[in-house]
Each structure stands twice: as structure tokens, then as C-alpha cells.
């Protein structure tokens, strides 16, 4: 009986693993399949021969390295900006009582209800006169605003896990509140900062619609837009596209793998009180 | 706990007024940069967007632009595509969230018990969430294609499909393609939040229950579920809203087709705005979607409050 | 010189008043303990002195400086928290030196002071460890070291021992006492444990519902509690409090309580208490004993009672008696024979150890005793 349930449990684990990984496996499999076998061996688990030609093409001859660089800049910029601002908001929510605090928290929750498709045009009209359309900075500003509310609550939850007595002790020991934050609290917030950075980086990396609408010039396109314009062209080279997609997967996958356990830990520390 | 407790009742002789005001100002020092960017980039465009919905605003006809009251909303009432998109949005959101919740809860329960290789397993099963949404769309679009993927053949073998064909081109089934991709992509989010909630359940409760003779199912029913409920409702709320608002996967996989059969409201907003270039109508659609989501959230929180009592 | 003066200090949270017109003068080098049940305002008062809570009214002076508007860092105080609040990412050495580092003291001075405090507290072998690698008692010591190193005007302790087990708590209590003898500084110490209050304090401040009930030496607080509340709070096991009435009894006045014989009042002490008054009679468990075990008593009065339960504690024993509808505790030191529940036992009570409180206000009815015998 015991071994039966044990075996069943392993079967379930295996099913989850297959469900999670098979699509990724297929992505990589196609990127490695030579063009001439793409359709003839389309449904076999592994093609009779493989090639790295798609990858060399994408890296050496396509515009994807530029897209890749743009996406790194935008995602990194967004992640850093959001984490910095969320560190401030989360800290204020966690450590201060002030008039309008609840209203402000509700406001941040409500922003999560907005259909973002609705703000594309007004945002475009707002950003165009100040020259932020078709710039990476513009994208960073927009993504920062979109990701900030959730990140602020995430940071808040991490702050709640740090005893207030620590900064009080520091303030008695001669720190100003700001010094206590920098010298005592932030070092202890590193898991939270890491989790927020990774979370936002991943989110910004996958954004499509706003990049599509706000970026027009080829040299500033992000990966998502680049890939999609690939699809639009006639005579799509699927192998090359999948190779590019595989490359696009690497940074968020690394980031996310590094932070996922902090994410669980941070939510355990505070958010459950919600 | 806070230094900045505000107490308007303070008598005139209180000498601490300046410091209190300073403390409140200090809170805003940390808040202001973030809050102002959110307000500027989300709130202002939203207000402008809502104002569009009361205008005749078609890019091709700049001369006829002007306020037209609720005309867009009246058009919407008689628009069959709107009602179809609304029904599709409900279908898309319900199935996506229901399966994400079920599978996510299962995954969280699995991950909450130690087993050899758990850490590696966890980072692997969470991986789909790191995949950009548009990429998972492209990927699943490919997977549903019977020529280049074994999946349709497998679905036929287990009896889900009558023949290995592409469900994305079948008007009856097209929406289930993006739904599958959404489930695949979103299970980790549920698993992460529910795992966090599971970890915060005091273990001695289970010990006490097993001493009292509770079965595994009874422990789950009477300890795990009540403890998870707050987290489950909040996660369902967040995800429902997010999924309902999210056009990416459908945009990439079916573009709402074939023949609007997989059109959801956000996609219809996008099509109206950037294919028909009718911003007024698109904004009316978006406003309706937002109002429905606000009503849904209030209802869910109200029910949760009721259950909590 | 650092005396601490509190003048009419008030703390409000919105409509709720946590501390009412708190007045207290604490002398230089005095060890004062705030004691009371949880929620009595003792920690709030301490935190107001520290500057961690703003005061809603009144004035606080430390060393003749008004500190109302000064942030904690400018008050030259140090504080030991209940959960120690050690900086988890700093070693024991860094934790102790942090305050001096913030004050920009030279490295050698920090080194020397940290070493001196560590020696005093027996922490020298742990200096490069992180707090996570220390036991509860060691963390407690580091927290005290961190407080001492800065040589502050005032030490504040906020329930510093309540996270320790009973044995360690006793040890640390003794150490704090010795420490205060070595490092003479003004100390304000908050606890809900009356044993800590009794053993450590020069003066005890008993608080209840945001108000001071009594400020006095441990001896006076124990022997002349100012109110029924103090009487019941200080002392373990607590004083027996019995609802009773005064009655005219020949020339004098007696206290009459159900199940008890008439207890005549000593007119020298209770002269102003008239007859026919509702009172609460207070008798410490030490003032009651079976006649065959009673030591010398100043004014013994005999009565009979049933022993319903015996709790032997080794060097002493607690007896529970049924008197009317009350259960009364008696405490016997060095019980000479084995004790067991028994009917109709002859007891004596020492009337010189009798306390009376007004049944309505709870105020003590005789003037506090001044003669200490």
C-alpha cells in the first residue's frame, strides 16, 4: 500500500514535470532541427540529424543580438527602477502610520484592475510630446509604473518579516531613520530585493503590446517585437525563429531559477496576513 | 509601533507637533517617487481613455471627432461581436483560472512534502513562468500544429480529438489553444503563492490533529483548506483580473480568429483600436471590461468577508 | 548626572488614552522597575522615554534636558529589547561597537570598550560569531554589552528576560543586579514579572490601565501596598483578598467575613476606620499557618479550617483552605511533617499582618507603615 501510493506520487510528479518541460523541449528540438527535416520529421521526438546553423545565423547575421541587447537594457532598467521605488513604498507602508495610507494601498490594488490595452493610446499621446515615444527610457518608465504596485506589496511583505526593534535599536544606537534603513534593514532585505528584481525582470522581459505600440525603429525593438515581426514576414524561417526564442528564454530562466525560492520565502514571511 | 501615529486630539501643549509633521513628511519622502509615477503613467491615461469612450474618435475621420455622449455604449449593446467577446472572456478566464488553481494547488501540496530532488524539481516545474507570454504563445501555436508536433496525434490517441488536426483553426475549439498555453504558463504562480501559504501553517496543528485521530483527508479539509482560503481568494482575484485583461496569448496564437471565435474583450479592444482605428469604441469596450472587473472584485471580496465572519 | 523626570506625560492613540498624566522623578543611578499586567502602559512609557513613541502631552527630561523633541539617537540612552534586536548580519563585536561607530569614535577606543564589556559579560570567545550562532542567554548578554559599551546616561530594559527559560532567567537577573553594582547608571526596567521587580528595583512603579498605582521601595510595595490591585499583583502566591465588613465589637471594631472569626482591628493602625463599612481584607499566605507549625506571630488569632489541598514545594508548602465560599492560601516554611488534606485543623492568623482596602475604590485604609522591624 505504502509503496503503491509512493509510486503514484512519483507518477504525478513525473506528469507535472512533463507538462512543464515538454513544450520547452519541443522549442529547443525545433531550433536544432535542420530545415529540410522540419516538416518531414515534424512529429518524431528527435530528428535524425541536428544542426546549430539556426543559432549561428541568429547570432551572427540576424538583428536579434540588437533586440536582445535592447531587451536586456529595458528589463534591467525596469527591474532596478521598480525595486528602488518599491523599496521606498514598501518601507513607508510597513513602518509609518499616516493619513491616507489605506486609501493609497487600495489605489495600488485598483491599478491592477485596469485593462492596460485601454491606456496604450492615451499613453502614446502623453509620451510623444516629451519625446519618450520610440525610446528605451520611455519603455522603462511605462513598465516601471505597471510593475510597481505588485512589487511594492511584495517588498512590503518582506519588510514585515523584519522586526521593528532592529531599526529602533539602531536609532537608539545613534542612527537617523534613514541610516537605520540603509545600514540595518536593507542588508536584511537582500532576499526581498533579489526576489523583486528577478520578478520584475522576468515580467518586463516578456512584455509585448507596449513594446509593439511604443517602439517603431528597428534598432530599438525588443525581442518580443522582433520575434513577432518575424512571424509577420512571408516565408518565416521557423528554425531560426525558434533558435532566437530559445536564446530569449535563457536570461529570464536563469533569473527566475535563482530567485524562486526567495519568492516563496518572502510570501511566507508576510503576505499571508492579507 | 510607528513613530508617526497621528492623533488630532492632542492638546495644545503638546510640544511634539513639528516632529510629527516631519514624520508624516518622511513617509512621503519614501512614497512620492513611486506613487507619482504610477499616478502619471496609469491614472492619467486611464482618465483620458475613459473620456475617449464618450467621443466619436476614429483616426480615419479626424474631422468628425467630438463628444457623442453614450453613443459608443449604445453601439456596443447591439454589437454581436461584443457579446461574443464577453462570453469568450468569461470562458477564457474561468477555464484558465480554474485549471491554474487546481493544478497549482496540487503542485504546491507536492512541493510541500520533502522528497529526493525536490529543489531541482521545484525550479524545473516553475520554469514555464519565466517564459515570456508571447513566447509561450508561439510555442503552443507550434505544438498544436499536427505537421510539426506530435501533440495532436497524442490527443487523438487518448480520444480528445477525432483526428490529428489543428484546434486553433477550428472555431469551436480555437479558444482552448490559448487557454492551454495560459494554464501551462500560470500554474507556477498559483503554486508559488499557495506553497508560501502552506509553509506558514503551523506544523503542530497537523500533529495535534493526527493525535486526535484525523485522517489525511480530514487534516486537509479542516486545517489546510481553511488556512489557505485567504491566500486562495486573493490569488484567484489577482489572477482572474490579470487573465481577463491579458490579450497577449490570444493575439499571438489566433488573433481572435477564426472569425472572432476566440475573440476576448481585450483583444477586441485592440482590434477596434488598431485595425478599425476607432478609439472611441475601443475605449467604451475597455471601460465596460474594467467596470465588470471592479464589480467582480468587490463581489469576491464581499463574499470573502462574509465567509470570514 | 542623569536623573529622569516625567511631568504629566500623556499618550493617546486616537481616542484611546494609553498613559494618563504620568509623573515620576528618577534619581541619578537609581534602578527603577515598571511593573504591571500587559497593556498597563509600562512599555509605552518606556518607549516614550526612549523616543520611540511620541508623547501626546507633558514633558520628559533626561539629565535636566527636555527631550520631548529629540530623536532617540540624541537622548544618550541605550535599550535592551525583549527579542534582543541584535543585528543579524553583524558579529558580536560589530553589534557591540555599532553605537560607537555611529558616533564616529576612533577604532582603538571602540576595540577597547567592546573588549572591556565583553570581558565583563563573558563574551570574549564569541566576539566573531553571528547572533544566529548564539544561545538565548548569550544573545541576551550581547544585547546588554551593546547597551553598556556606549556608556549612556540611562539604560532602558524592555522585558529583557521574558524570552528565557526559568533557570536562565534567574541567572540573568542576578547578573543584571551585579552589573548595575559595577556600572552605576540610571536604569529603567520594564517587566510583568513581580519577582524581577522585587529583586532588582531600588523603587518599583506599579502600573495599571495607564496610571501609576504605587511608587515605592520593594519592601514598602510588599508590606504596605497602596491598593487592592498592588496587593494582589505583588507577592507570590498572591495575597488572599476577602470581601468583608467592619462591625462594632465592644469598645473596638472588628472585621467580619463569612467563615472567619471576628478579626479585631488594632486602633493604633486602623484608628480612622469606622464600623459598618464594606472592605476587602488582605492576608498574605505567610500570615496564616496551622497552629502546630506557626512560628512566632505578633498578634496571633486562632481559627479552625479544612485543608482541601496541599502543594508541597520542598522547602515550603502551600495549603488551600476553605473559608466560607473563598479559597484561602497559606504558605508554610520548612514544613516539619508531611501534610495532607485534613478536616477541622487549628490555624492561626497574624493580625499584625492584616491589610484593609476600601471595597469600592480599592484604596488602602491605614496609613502606610513606616516602622520597619
Explain the overall architecture.
The complex is a heterotrimer of chains A (274), B (309) and C (373). Chain A has 274 residues and is mostly helical. Chain A is built from twelve helices and no strands. Chain A is globular and about 75 Å long. Mean pLDDT of chain A is 85; it is low at 270-274. Chain B has helices at residues 17-52, 71-77, 80-112, 118-125, 133-143, 151-157, 176-199, 203-211, 216-245, 248-253, 265-274, 279-308; strands at residues 55-56, 66-67. Residues 1-16 of chain B have low confidence and may be disordered. Chain C has helices spanning 42-50, 92-102, 107-121, 136-149, 166-182, 194-200, 218-223, 228-233, 267-270, and strands spanning 4-13, 16-26, 31-35, 57-62, 65-66, 77-80, 154-158, 186-191, 203-208, 211-216, 240-249, 252-256, 263-264, 278-283, 288-290, 300-312, 316-323, 326-333, 342-350, 354-358. Chain C has a six-stranded mixed β-sheet with strand order 6-7-8-3-9-10, sandwiched between helices. A five-stranded antiparallel β-sheet of chain C has the order 13-12-11-14-20. At the A-B interface, helix 1, helix 3, helix 4, helix 5 and helix 6 of A face helix 1, helix 3, helix 4, helix 5 and helix 7 of B. Chain B: InterPro entries: MetI-like, MetI-like_sf.
The CATH topology of the largest domain in chain A, please? Answer: MetI-like fold
Low-confidence stretches of chain A: 270-274
Most extensive chain interface and residues per partner: A-B, 91 and 98 residues
Query: So what's the CATH class of the largest domain in chain C?
Result: Alpha Beta
CA radius of gyration of chain A: 23 Å
β content of chain C, as a range?
25-35%
Radius of gyration of chain C: 24 Å
> Could you say what the CATH architecture of the largest domain in chain C is?
3-Layer(aba) Sandwich
User: CATH H-level name of the largest domain in chain C... which superfamily?
Assistant: P-loop containing nucleotide triphosphate hydrolases
| Mean of residue pLDDT values of chain A | 85
Amino acid at each position: 500500500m505504502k509503496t503503491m501510493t509512493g509510486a503514484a506520487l512519483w507518477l504525478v510528479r513525473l506528469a507535472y514535470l512533463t507538462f512543464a518541460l515538454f513544450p520547452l523541449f519541443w522549442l529547443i528540438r525545433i531550433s536544432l532541427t535542420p530545415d529540410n527535416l522540419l516538416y518531414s520529421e515534424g512529429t518524431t521526438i528527435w530528428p535524425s540529424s541536428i544542426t546549430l546553423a539556426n543559432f549561428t545565423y541568429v547570432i551572427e547575421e540576424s538583428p536579434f543580438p540588437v533586440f536582445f541587447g535592447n531587451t536586456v537594457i529595458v528589463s534591467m532598467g525596469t527591474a532596478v527602477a521598480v525595486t528602488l521605488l518599491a523599496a521606498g513604498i514598501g518601507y513607508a507602508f510597513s513602518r509609518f502610520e499616516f493619513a491616507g495610507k489605506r486609501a493609497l494601498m487600495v489605489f495600488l490594488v485598483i491599478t491592477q484592475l485596469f485593462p492596460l490595452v485601454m491606456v496604450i493610446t492615451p499613453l502614446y499621446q502623453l509620451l510623444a510630446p516629451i519625446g519618450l515615444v520610440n525610446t528605451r527610457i520611455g519603455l522603462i518608465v511605462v513598465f516601471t509604473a505597471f510593475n510597481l504596485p505588485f512589487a511594492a506589496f511584495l517588498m512590503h511583505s518582506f519588510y514585515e518579516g523584519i522586526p521593528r526593534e532592529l531599526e529602533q535599536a539602531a536609532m537608539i544606537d545613534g542612527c537617523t531613520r534613514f541610516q537605520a534603513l540603509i545600514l540595518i534593514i536593507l542588508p536584511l532585505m537582500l532576499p526581498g530585493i533579489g526576489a523583486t528584481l528577478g520578478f520584475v525582470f522576468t515580467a518586463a522581459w516578456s512584455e509585448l503590446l507596449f513594446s509593439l505600440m511604443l517602439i517603431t525603429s528597428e534598432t530599438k525593438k525588443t525581442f518580443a517585437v522582433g520575434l513577432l515581426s518575424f512571424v509577420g514576414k512571408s516565408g518565416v524561417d521557423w528554425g531560426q525563429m525558434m533558435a532566437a526564442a530559445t536564446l530569449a528564454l535563457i536570461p529570464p530562466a536563469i533569473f527566475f531559477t535563482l530567485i524562486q525560492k526567495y519568492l516563496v520565502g518572502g510570501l511566507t514571511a508576510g503576505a499571508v496576513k492579507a | 509601533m510607528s513613530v508617526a501615529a497621528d492623533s488630532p486630539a492632542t492638546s495644545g501643549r503638546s510640544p511634539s507637533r513639528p516632529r510629527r509633521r516631519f514624520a508624516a513628511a518622511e513617509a512621503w519622502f519614501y512614497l512620492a517617487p513611486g506613487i507619482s509615477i504610477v499616478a502619471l503613467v496609469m491614472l492619467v491615461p486611464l482618465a483620458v481613455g475613459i473620456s475617449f469612450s464618450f467621443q466619436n474618435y476614429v483616426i480615419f475621420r479626424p474631422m468628425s471627432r467630438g463628444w457623442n455622449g453614450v453613443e459608443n455604449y449604445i453601439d456596443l449593446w447591439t454589437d454581436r461581436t461584443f457579446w461574443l467577446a464577453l462570453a469568450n472572456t468569461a470562458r477564457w478566464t474561468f477555464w484558465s483560472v480554474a485549471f491554474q488553481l487546481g493544478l497549482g494547488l496540487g503542485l504546491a501540496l507536492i512541493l510541500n512534502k520533502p522528497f529526493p530532488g525536490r529543489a531541482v524539481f521545484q525550479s524545473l516545474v516553475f520554469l514555464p513562468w519565466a517564459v515570456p507570454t508571447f513566447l509561450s504563445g508561439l510555442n503552443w501555436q507550434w505544438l498544436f500544429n499536427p505537421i510539426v508536433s506530435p501533440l495532436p496525434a497524442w490527443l487523438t490517441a487518448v480520444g480528445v480529438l477525432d483526428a490529428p488536426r489543428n484546434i486553433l483553426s477550428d472555431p469551436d475549439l480555437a479558444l482552448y489553444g490559448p487557454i492551454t498555453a495560459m494554464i501551462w504558463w500560470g500554474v507556477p504562480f498559483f503554486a508559488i503563492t499557495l506553497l508560501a501559504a502552506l509553509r506558514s501553517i503551523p506544523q503542530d496543528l497537523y500533529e495535534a490533529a493526527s493525535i486526535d485521530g484525523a485522517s489525511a483527508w480530514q487534516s486537509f479539509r479542516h486545517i489546510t483548506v481553511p488556512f489557505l482560503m485567504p491566500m486562495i481568494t486573493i490569488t484567484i482575484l489577482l489572477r482572474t483580473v490579470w487573465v481577463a485583461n491579458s490579450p497577449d496569448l490570444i493575439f499571438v496564437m489566433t488573433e481572435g480568429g477564426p472569425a472572432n471565435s476566440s475573440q476576448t474583450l481585450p483583444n477586441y479592444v485592440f482590434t477596434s483600436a488598431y485595425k478599425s482605428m476607432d478609439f472611441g469604441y475601443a475605449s467604451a469596450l475597455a471601460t465596460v471590461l474594467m467596470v465588470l472587473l471592479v464589480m467582480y472584485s468587490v463581489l469576491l471580496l464581499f463574499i470573502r468577508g462574509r465567509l470570514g465572519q | 548626572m542623569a536623573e529622569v523626570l516625567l511631568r504629566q506625560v500623556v499618550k493617546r492613540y486616537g481616542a484611546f488614552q494609553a498613559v494618563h498624566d504620568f509623573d515620576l522623578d528618577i534619581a541619578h543611578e537609581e534602578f527603577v522597575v515598571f511593573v504591571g499586567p500587559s497593556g498597563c502602559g509600562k512599555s509605552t512609557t518606556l518607549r516614550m522615554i526612549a523616543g520611540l513613541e511620541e508623547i501626546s502631552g507633558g514633558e520628559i527630561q533626561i539629565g535636566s534636558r527636555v527631550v520631548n523633541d529629540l530623536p532617540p539617537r540624541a537622548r544618550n540612552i541605550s535599550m535592551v529589547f525583549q527579542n534582543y534586536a541584535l543585528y543579524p548580519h553583524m558579529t558580536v563585536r560589530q553589534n557591540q561597537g555599532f553605537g560607537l561607530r555611529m558616533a564616529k569614535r576612533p577604532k582603538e577606543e571602540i576595540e577597547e570598550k567592546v573588549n572591556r564589556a565583553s570581558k565583563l559579560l563573558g563574551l570574549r570567545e564569541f566576539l566573531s560569531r553571528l547572533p544566529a550562532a548564539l544561545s538565548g542567554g548569550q544573545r541576551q548578554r550581547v544585547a546588554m554589552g551593546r547597551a553598556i559599551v556606549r556608556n549612556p546616561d540611562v539604560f532602558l530594559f524592555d522585558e529583557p528576560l521574558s524570552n528565557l527559560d526559568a533557570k536562565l532567567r534567574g541567572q540573568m537577573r542576578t547578573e543584571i543586579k551585579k552589573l548595575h553594582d559595577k556600572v552605576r547608571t540610571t536604569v529603567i526596567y520594564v517587566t510583568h514579572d513581580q519577582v524581577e521587580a522585587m529583586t532588582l528595583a531600588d523603587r518599583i512603579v506599579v502600573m495599571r490601565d495607564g496610571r501609576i498605582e504605587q511608587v515605592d521601595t520593594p519592601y514598602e510595595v510588599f508590606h504596605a501596598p497602596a491598593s487592592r490591585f498592588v496587593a494582589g499583583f505583588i507577592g507570590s502566591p498572591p495575597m488572599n483578598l476577602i470581601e468583608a465588613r467592619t462591625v462594632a465589637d465592644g469598645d473596638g471594631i472588628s472585621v467580619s467575613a463569612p467563615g472567619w472569626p471576628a478579626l479585631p482591628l488594632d486602633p493604633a493602625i486602623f484608628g480612622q476606620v469606622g464600623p459598618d463599612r464594606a472592605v476587602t481584607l488582605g492576608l498574605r499566605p505567610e500570615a496564616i499557618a496551622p497552629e502546630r507549625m506557626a512560628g512566632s506571630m505578633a498578634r496571633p488569632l486562632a481559627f479552625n479550617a479544612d485543608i482541601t489541598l496541599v502543594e508541597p514545594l520542598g522547602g515550603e508548602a502551600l495549603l488551600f483552605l476553605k473559608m466560607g465560599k473563598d479559597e484561602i492560601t497559606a504558605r508554610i516554611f520548612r514544613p516539619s511533617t508531611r501534610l495532607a488534606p485534613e478536616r477541622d485543623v487549628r490555624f492561626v492568623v497574624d493580625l499584625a499582618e492584616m491589610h484593609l482596602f476600601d471595597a469600592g475604590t480599592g484604596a488602602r485604609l491605614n496609613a502606610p507603615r513606616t516602622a520597619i522591624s
